[in-house]
Amino acid sequence: MKKIIQIARLELSLLFYSPIAWLLMIILFVQVSLSFTGAMSGLERTKGGPFLTGSLFTDSDNLGLFVHILSSLYLYIPLITMGIISRETSSGSIKLLYSSPVKLRHVVYGKFAAMLTYNLVIIGVLSLFVIGVAPLIPHFDYPHILVALFAAYLLINAYAAIGIFVSSLTSYQAVAAISTFVVLAFMNYIGTVGQDMDFVRDLTFSLSMPSRAERMMAGLLNTRDVIYYLAITGMFLAFTITKLEMERVLKSTFKQVGRYALITVVALSITYISSRQPMIGYYDATATKTNTLTKASQELLKKLGDGPIEMTEYVNGIEDSYNRASPSDRIADIARWEPYLRFKPNINLKWVYYYDSIPGMTENLIKYNSTFNKYVVFMSNANQLDLDKFLTPKEIHKQIDLREEGVRTVMQLKYKGKATFLRTFPYERNMWPKEAETGAALKRLLVTPPKIVFATDGYQRSMDKLGDRDYKKLLNEKITRGSLINQGFDMDSVSLEKDEIPKEISALVIADPKVAFSASALTKLRKYVAEGGNLMIAGEPGKQNVVNPLLDSLGVQMLNGTLVQRSRDYSYGLVTPLLAPGAVAMSPWLQPYYAYKSVVSMPYAAALSYKDNGPFDVHPILITDAQTSWLKKGKFTLDSAALTVESKNGDEQGSFPTALTLTRKVNNKEQRILVSGDADFFSNMELARANMRTANSGLAVSIFSWFAYGEFPVDVSRPESKDNTIKLTKPRVKIIQVVYYGVIPGTLFLIGMILLIRRKRK
User: Residue 503 class from Cβ within 10 Å (0-12 exposed, 13-18 middle, 19+ buried)?
Assistant: First the structure.
């Protein structure tokens, strides 16, 4: 060990007495400073944002100072390592090493120890940016940044080991530098080669070095990538020792090749074994554990037990989403499943590629006088598809019918005889399902999904249409992420006049009935309520005579007239009630809306009344403002003169409930009923309203979650980030610019100059 330390000290003295080492450090610092100081100016204006630690240093989608510098770190190593061994060879001192009592491995370890120290100085240079900003950010996420710096350190150490080996291959330092550049550049960009071929993809990805560091930069330390860097570093150091020993003791070509092959096999075996999912250990260093599944998802995977899950991803080669789900995107696809594989390694991933006609294609082909086969040939040429690797329409139809899924990229999960779809969302920037959708699909494999059933009699609004007054976006739109069908719910419909109400449903919805139900339908409905069935009735003003017979047995009535609200900007017909305490009692997730006094938009709403001593516990969840709203009786016109309270016509000013929850115990279960004086608040139009901030979406989802007794949607909420503010002022930004543009680079330059001058004098 003493000899290794002595060699390391000698190598360090040569290194720091070289202008190259100091120049590279200054260039690296200036390169990062340009981005860092610009970010400080932007943060001074915005005063912060969520997850500032990650946004500043490790998030590739934002500034990500450290993650962006990864791609250029390899440029700094070759000029440092080029002379470590080649200098000895060119000067002839290598012969003294061969004949000295010092073992060659001690020489290599000593020189590598010197590089470890120099690399630590580079990490120290990068740490100066952390030191400059961390005191300005309350709750700065230090563990996250320490893991990010450790990942960078592992990467440049592996680069250094490669550089030392290349330096041992030649006596010319310039050749060593250029060769190291080539090797490191190759290992930086090899990860993009052959990504559409299975075997080549796995091989090239295993050689791609920065991508592994980038994963750890996100704050997730894992044994697989750490061991990979250590194995690669050890392999190239072993290559170097072997090369020097072969120079000293002549051996046959077979023995030389055999030794190099043995080193390679051992190193790759270690990386292979350590990359098997059951062998990987993880540590999530982020404050909010953003790289780890939430407790809800972990519990789901635990409940699934030891039984395997089969995930089959079906990809249509002639549909637009193929460009984001092609074989070249397989590595990213597997990475999306890694958080789940971490807790359940026996999720078997499978991909099926096919081509088939997409909805609306036939009409377009007829319009342009073309055929399906011609279109397939055109798309296969455009996307460079090898159709021999794709299932034909006939072959895919034998496996599965995807026409109801739009014949687009979709995943099917199978577990113990159950199957469910996990969909993608092609019109979003990130089309892949997130934890909420994946959790809902997994939970559907464990429990009976809640079913929402819509009554179709009386010309009610539809859950299958995209009209302004219908509900498809919220309930049954497969390509909308937040639609309840993608959050674990099933949807169905029933004719109360012709059919019986299904058993074991989560809720029956009667939305804006326009004609009165028959005595037979009313009997079925009253029987359903008497047996404890959950129910939602959403009416509209002017339909009191239709809705009130449904409400009689509930102790609720829809009052005659229409609610109106005084407003400067909006129609008096648009009522915006506030959430009442009953809404928070219904769903605690509405607490933030209640605290911020968020409103719910209700165009043309009716007021409700209820009996306190009725059969149900009744709680208003929406209440109008007594100062600005009133109940308008009779007919009126909104586009003429401004409306006023006309008491002589029966108008009543005050605070009125527009939505109520009713509960009671029936058959050892809490029966839940919701009555609304408006059927528009969860319609396609109101959920897309852009001229007012409303709580409509949150309320609508909470209502159906209430009917499902909180089972769905799956709660994957996380704590909010604490590192979301920064104490920056314009004078501080000026100081930072002076320090990072002038003071620190100038100090590094002066220290380097002093050392070099002292060295020259000696």
Answer: exposed
